[in-house]
Design a protein that fits this description.
The protein is mainly alpha-helical. It contains seven helices and no strands.
């Protein structure tokens, strides 16, 4: 299943069409480190568990990650497949998704804040959100 995914083949330097006859060298010599990475991600290593929780994640998570250099770098640095997958459409798309998520979260809590205005923890939390928003506003204003 792993070698059936085009992005994984490309990552490993394997031709799009697999050979029909037995071969001693499917992965080019210069891509053996990449093969070791993929095997470690799929099956784990003596010091690290596999990053895949189910075989479907090969096609719907790992393949898109390996198609993006940003996402692959994220996977290498964090070992977190879901976090890397969020980067698979690119950093800008990752940022836009996070902004949308933050907007939804703020909308969700907006109606509840007035009920808990006497609670110091809620007031502190809202104050932190305001400071963060003001910091973002300053960044945008500087452009």
């Amino acid at each position: 299943m792993t070698l059936g995914q085009r992005p994984i083949k490309a990552f490993l330097g394997i031709p799009k069409t697999l050979p029909k006859q037995a071969t001693d060298k499917l992965v080019p010599e210069e891509k053996l480190d990449a093969l070791e990475e993929v095997v470690g991600w799929v099956f784990g290593t003596p010091s690290r568990a596999p990053i895949l929780l189910e075989s479907r994640a090969i096609s719907n998570r790992l393949a898109p990650v390996l198609a993006s250099s940003e996402a692959t770098d994220r996977l290498r640095s964090t070992g977190d497949l879901e976090s890397a997958y969020e980067y698979s459409a690119g950093e800008k798309e990752f940022l836009l998704k996070k902004i949308q998520s933050a907007e939804r979260a703020i909308r969700d809590v907006s109606g509840l804040v007035s009920v808990y205005l006497e609670d110091p923890d809620v007031v502190r939390g809202v104050s932190r959100l305001i400071q963060l928003a003001q910091g973002l506003e300053k960044l945008v204003d500087e452009l």
